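Q: I'm writing a short explainer about ArsR/SmtB family transcription factor for a general audience and would like to include a description of its predicted shape. Could you first generate the structure from this sequence?
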Amino acid sequence: MLAALANPHRLRIIAALNQSGRNYVSQLAREIGISRPLLHLHLAKLEEAGLVTSQLELSPDGKALNFFAVSDFAIDLTPGAIAAAAASLTSKPES
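A: Of course. Here's the predicted structure. Afterward I'll give you a sentence or two in plain language.
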């Protein structure tokens, strides 16, 4: 979870979803100001970490929309949690 939250784009995604409740990819990309492919990459990381959930829905005109929402989570930030997170770090930081 900490690694997923270490990216500024992902923090902005969590903040935007927290404010809106849930949103679909195209609208969220416009709000945050990043491309949809980059947003998909970051949403996948957040979903892998259990920080967001997704749900595919059909719009009234039949288009498939993938809605994302923030999961209910809490992080108990202790020295032990930080040590465990540090042990999982790779030598190549994410971009």
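A: For your explainer, you could say: The chain has one domain: 2-87.
Q: Perfect, that's easy to follow.
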